[in-house]
Design a protein that fits this description.
The complex is a heterodimer of chains A (about 400) and B (about 110).
Chain A lengths: L7 E5 L11 E6 L5 H10 L3 E4 L9 H15 L4 E8 L7 H9 L5 E5 H4 L2 H20 L4 E5 L4 E6 L4 H20 L3 E4 L9 H7 L3 H20 L11 H5 L5 H8 L8 E5 L9 E5 L5 H10 L4 E5 L13 E5 L2 H6 L6 E2 L2 H4 L4 H16 L5 H4 L15
Parallel strand pairs in A: 2-3, 2-4, 4-5, 7-8, 7-11, 8-10, 9-10, 11-12, 12-13
Antiparallel strand pairs in A: 1-6
Helix pairs in contact in A: 1-5, 2-3, 2-11, 6-10, 6-14, 7-8
Chain B lengths: L2 H15 L1 E4 L7 E6 L6 E5 L7 E4 L9 E3 L8 E4 L2 E6 L8 E2 L4 E2 L7
Parallel strand pairs in B: 1-3
Antiparallel strand pairs in B: 1-2, 2-5, 3-4, 5-8, 6-7, 7-9
The chains are: A alpha/beta (about 400), B alpha+beta (about 110).
């Protein structure tokens, strides 16, 4: 593979922090009461992206803090050019406070409260006007500049896994991961539950005893949480689809999943949504569930996601492009409109793993340079984050 | 029809009926089926690079993408894939037999 240090892409410069590979205008609900209004605003503003969820009220402790953190980090993400926060006025994390914090990073930001605006219709009207104002401010910083590919943060995910994931698609991603890490880039992977059974691999790949201990203990904590439910995990992890696709146990799934992290040392261990500030290969403690996992890694600063799937999934993400990769020939055919890279040749015997890694690098470059992924082109803008405690 | 044509047709049918399965790591005692037909009675086993071929007889039907045992595995014995334990047999498994949730279980996350 080409030395990644010789590759640049055209990114969007930001006042503070990393450049982005998209220049989104995002309208974010600070609480679920604003969801419909956010959807109506973005429906009327071409190119704007709605971010809605079911949190922001009735939460305690970590969950309450996490909601504020994730919403803010979504708004100030490198891929976001402008942000409108829409709140109700009485929720835990107010729109104005969030917009002030986003604005302090140099990001064009605005805020609306439904109660202050005077209800649905007036808030929608004000929101459309605010978005037009934000577009004007964003135009002033629509500059694309050359940035090294290795300045990007790449997240890794697997979803709808089957027997092809661990045998072919994940090892191919691992080839790219090794090249990116070796060249000084940043890669993050998570899905803690899907390391249950792969602890021996983690031990071999971590030389820092602190990092090793923290990852192993997080895997143990996830297993304890599952055990505390008093039910057999099978049917949730692995899922019914995983099982039909040949994965019999979580151990089998995990040993296949970890292949996407390549072969180089894991040098970072991050909490959910924590900023990915270290170069190299990072682990982030996230659920195995795809949507919340994507949200954690993107909130931490991941620019794009390499997402392997065996059985096929259309999932995208609100503010980061998701590149779909399959090595399942049937999925590559039946769900062709959702697949960016078809690596089924790996199992048919007419594609080498080195060549597959190159195909992935090519997709990373073109996506970073603005080419839409299938998920983006089809309008998949899913969003949702992890909550662990009770809602009051 | 010439007798040689019969033989060639027969050989063609046998090759088409040959299943294929991949052994991921040398220590594995299961292989993953990547090609199978309704009349498959034997598998060509190879590693991921397509090398180290050997033939093994099937011992019953198996689903595409599922595992078959490379050796007899006793009840309670480890199932090895990727060179690591992925679970254990819940009953004795014959060489060539389908290995999945009906005869193996996880050692993790079982609520106790």
């Amino acid at each position: 593979m080409k030395d990644l240090n010789t590759i640049t892409i055209q990114g969007f410069e930001r006042a503070k922090g990393r450049p982005g590979i998209r220049n989104h205008l995002v309208v974010v609900a600070t609480v679920f009461c604003a969801n419909h209004i956010v959807a109506r605003i973005t429906a009327a503003v071409p190119g704007s992206i709605p971010v809605t969820h079911n949190a922001g009220c009735g939460q305690l402790g970590n969950d309450a803090d996490n909601t504020g953190k994730i919403i803010l980090k979504t708004g100030i993400h490198p891929n976001v050019g402008g942000i409108l926060f829409v709140g109700l006025g009485c929720e835990q994390h107010g729109a104005t406070a969030l917009a002030d914090r986003a604005g302090a990073t140099g990001k064009p930001a605005a805020a609306l409260d439904i109660q202050a605006c005077g209800g649905t219709t007036k808030t929608i009207e004000a929101g459309i006007a605010a978005c037009k104002g934000l577009y004007g401010r964003m135009a002033a910083q629509n500059r694309r500049v050359d940035i090294p590919l290795t300045d990007l943060v790449i997240a890794l995910e697997c979803g709808g896994s089957d027997y092809t994931s661990g045998m072919a698609a994940n090892p191919a991603v691992g080839v790219f991961t090794d090249c990116m890490v070796r060249a000084g880039g940043s890669v993050v992977f998570g899905e803690t539950c899907e390391l249950m059974g792969a602890e021996a691999v983690i031990r071999r790949r971590t030389s820092d005893p602190d990092i090793q201990g923290r990852i192993i203990s997080r895997i143990g904590r996830t297993e304890s949480a599952a055990n505390a439910m008093g039910v057999d995990m099978r049917g949730s992890q692995p899922s019914p689809g995983n099982i039909r696709g040949g994965l019999s146990t979580i151990e089998e799934k995990s040993l296949g999943a970890v292949c996407k992290s390549g072969s180089l040392p894991i040098t970072g261990c991050l909490d959910y949504g924590e900023e990915i500030s270290r170069r190299g290969l990072n682990f982030m403690d996230c659920p195995g569930q795809d949507l919340t996992s994507l949200c954690g890694m993107v909130s931490g600063g991941a620019h794009m996601v390499l997402f392997t799937t065996g059985r096929g999934t259309p999932l995208g993400f609100a503010i980061a492009p998701v590149v779909k990769i399959t090595a399942n020939a049937r999925t590559g055919e039946t769900m062709a409109e959702n697949i960016d890279i078809n690596l089924s040749g790996l199992l048919l015997g007419n594609l080498t793993i080195a060549r597959a890694g190159e195909m992935i690098l090519r997709a990373v470059r073109s996506t970073a340079n603005g080419e839409l992924t299938r998920a983006e082109a089809l309008g998949h803008r899913e969003f949702g984050f992890y909550t662990s405690g009770p809602t009051l | 029809m010439h007798p040689n044509d019969d033989r060639k047709q027969d050989q063609g049918r046998k090759i088409q009926a040959l299943g294929r399965a991949i052994v991921i790591a040398p220590a594995d005692n299961v292989a993953t089926v990547i090609h199978i037909t309704p009349s498959t009675s034997c598998y060509r086993l190879s590693n991921k690079a397509g090398q180290s071929h050997r033939i093994m007889e099937a011992a019953g039907p198996v689903d595409f993408g599922h595992k078959i045992a490379l050796t007899p595995i006793p009840s309670g014995g480890d199932i090895i894939k990727y060179g690591e334990t992925i679970g254990r047999a819940t009953i004795a498994i014959d060489r060539g037999e389908h290995v999945h949730i009906h005869n193996m279980e996880s050692c993790r996350g079982k609520g106790r």
